[in-house]
Design a protein that fits this description.
Structural class: alpha/beta
Number of strands: 10
Strand content: 5-15%
CATH class of the largest domain: Alpha Beta
Number of helices: 29
Radius of gyration: 48 Å
CATH architecture of the largest domain: 3-Layer(aba) Sandwich
Helix content: 40-55%
CATH topology of the largest domain: Rossmann fold
CATH superfamily of the largest domain: P-loop containing nucleotide triphosphate hydrolases
């Protein structure tokens, strides 16, 4: 009974033409063989399972072949057969992971001096050469730089950054690239047919995707599938491959990508949870999501994406269908937010939660409203005529005035000396000087210039944006009073307010603390109705009312009383016993002496009801009691 040989060894390439996906390397090596321009040291770099050691063996066969055919080994001579059987004494393979000491390299340095026994060259293939110690590298450095003419070195490594730069500079470096899924699928189909294995194309594509660019891994996975399912004498399906290796099918991937494009957050979370419960590899799922997004993006950008994408025609068709009705900017933002977190996902403790979080965050950013979209929408509305009112809004809103002064020419009138201003009386002997002319004031008529007359327009004729704060607030109160849905009591609370100014479409209204705080809160609760009322009255959609709660007279009075120090006991003792009558003080001065300044008086005079009472009875403020 013959010993079973695994597919990866049984189908290992024996000629340059059997190597898949490394045409740039094969062409260079074959030309070097044909022209007999081979170097003394080579360095093959690349990830695992893509053919570094295999290419080194084929190159060793071609170098020692007795009858090479256009740079290819004949695979028939004694040298080729012995190398293929791994029993050629002149082709030595060394595993640097286990033989990496300086003693091993010193022995090798002594052996290279001996001539080959049966071949043209003595060839040393050192695999995983980055595992050599620094002392071993130093011991090998001179030999690699100037080896004997009959010696060739072929190094292979997956970690080229760990190889000394002095070694790399003495070698011809060849970088082998990962093999595309299409080439792996083609090779696996040929192997399955030769092995009489029935397997679906979808299953082969899933295996090629799981191999991640490595032909050896793909062949090992195929070998595992044959051993696991071949006893059923049925076709190996995609579901079987996915269940065995924890991969995600195209149907589930399409469902996730569609939910991301439609901003269906619940659909994304549900799909990821279902796959996690089934035991799918979430890191592989994340990589597949990125590959699908890239495929959809390239189908948007390129007319022939198959030239770049390593996918079959069916996958290209799925990419086109997914991206048929989606904005390319959304795809780009999704990729920008997801492509940089792969390593973090690898180190995450709870991969499911982390994957859900980063995908939902990317969806939120991708589907949020952009400034460019708002500008485009505004321009569309402006062209449609829906934003004509924006053209009527002044760029520089002036401060509203109560009255408008209109200058009108009138007949010349001789000036009368006795009509001089009463506020500035002058002696009869001294002439009354004429005041300097100002733009908004009436100048004393001097012949032959005409006299200016002021024509004051009533407040009712003013424009809406020039309403006084008091009249505007009264109109707002009247509008609120007519609203049957608002408590009439709140209208009385609004009359307690103090309108201050109306500037830049904002009416400032002050409530002092003398009024009940509940009244202020009640008015504040109907602020939306007040905003609507002022916008209807002024015709300005941006008009607003700012309610302010300030400290009133009471607080200032208490503050001033607190600031006036009481006399010390020593001062009272030294005070004279004689009581003098206080001098007569003007009432206004009395208030100022009590309160320290005019701040309280000014506060009181701001009240309309106080001013109206003083004007009605001709009174003045004499005293204040807190």
């Amino acid at each position: 009974m013959n010993e079973y040989q695994v597919i990866a060894r049984k189908w290992r390439p024996q000629r340059f033409s059997d190597v898949v996906g490394q045409e740039h390397i094969i062409k260079t090596l074959k030309n070097a063989i044909r022209q007999q321009r081979t170097a003394h040291a080579y360095l093959f770099v690349g990830p695992r399972g893509i053919g570094k050691t295999t290419t080194a063996r084929i190159f060793a066969k071609a170098l020692n072949c007795e009858a090479p055919e256009d740079g290819e080994p004949c695979c028939k001579c004694q040298s080729c057969v012995s190398i293929a059987n791994e029993n050629n004494i002149d082709v030595i393979e060394i595993d640097a992971a286990s033989q990496n000491s300086v003693e091993n390299i010193r022995d090798l340095r002594d052996e290279v001096l001996h001539m080959p026994i049966s071949c043209r060259y003595k060839i040393y293939i050192i695999d995983e050469v980055h595992m050599l110690s620094k002392s071993a590298w130093n011991a090998l450095l001179k030999t690699v730089e100037e080896p004997p003419a009959h010696v060739k070195f072929i190094f292979a490594t997956t970690e080229v950054h760990m190889v000394l730069a002095t070694i790399i500079s003495r070698c011809q470096r060849f970088d082998l690239k990962p093999i595309s899924s299409t080439l792996i699928s083609t090779r696996l189909t040929e192997i399955a047919a030769a092995e009489n294995v029935t397997i679906s194309p979808e299953a082969i594509s899933a295996i090629a995707r799981a191999a991640d660019g490595g032909m050896r891994d793909a062949q090992s996975l195929l070998d595992q599938m044959i051993a696991f399912f071949s006893g059923d004498e049925k076709e190996i399906s995609e579901e079987q491959v996915l269940s065995l290796f924890g991969l995600t099918g195209s149907t589930d991937l399409i469902k996730i990508i569609s939910s991301m494009f439609s901003n269906d957050r619940g659909g994304v979370v549900a799909a990821i949870h279902t796959l996690a419960v089934k035991g799918k590899n979430l890191e592989t799922l994340f990589s597949d999501i990125l590959n699908y997004l890239r495929g959809v993006q390239l189908c948007h950008l390129l007319s022939n994406p198959e030239a770049i994408l390593e996918s079959d025609a069916d996958s290209i068709k799925r990419f086109r269908e997914l991206g048929a009705n989606i904005n390319s900017d959304i795809i780009q933002i999704l990729m920008e937010n997801l492509s940089s977190v792969g390593r973090i996902l690898h180190d995450a403790i709870n991969k499911q939660v982390f994957l859900e979080t980063i995908i939902l965050k990317a969806m939120r950013v991708a589907h949020s409203v952009k400034i460019a979209d708002l500008i485009a929408r505004m321009n569309y509305l402006r062209k449609a005529g829906d934003l004509e009112f924006l053209n009527k809004i002044p760029t520089d809103v002036p401060t509203p005035a109560k009255t408008i002064v209109e200058v009108v020419e009138v007949p010349i009138v001789e000036p009368k000396p006795e009509l001089a201003p009463e506020s500035e009386p002058k002696p009869e002997s001294e002439p009354v000087p004429s005041p300097a002319p100002e733009p908004d004031h009436v100048q004393e008529p001097v012949p032959p210039e005409p006299e200016l007359k002021l024509d004051i327009k009533p407040e009712a004729e003013l424009a809406k944006d020039e309403l006084s704060p008091n009249s505007l607030w009264q109109q707002i109160v009247k509008s609120i009073k007519s609203d049957s849905l608002i408590d009439p009591t709140i209208v009385h609370y609004m009359n307690e307010a103090n309108p201050k100014d109306f500037e830049n479409s904002m009416l400032t209204v002050v409530f002092y603390e003398e009024f009940d705080p509940a009244h202020y809160s009640a008015v504040q609760n109907i602020l939306p109705a007040i905003h609507k009322a002022i916008q209807n009255i002024t015709g300005d959609w941006a008009a607003t009312v700012d309610l302010i709660h300030k400290k009133g007279v009471r607080a200032i009075h208490k503050k001033v009383e607190k600031e006036i120090p009481e006399p010390e006991p020593e001062e009272l003792a030294l005070a004279p016993e004689k009581k003098e009558e206080p001098p007569l003080v003007d009432p206004a001065d009395r208030v100022n002496s009590i309160l320290g300044d005019k701040e309280v008086v000014d506060k009181i005079k701001e009240k309309e009801i106080v001013n109206a009472s003083l004007d009605l009875f001709g009174g003045t403020i004499v005293d204040i009691h807190g």
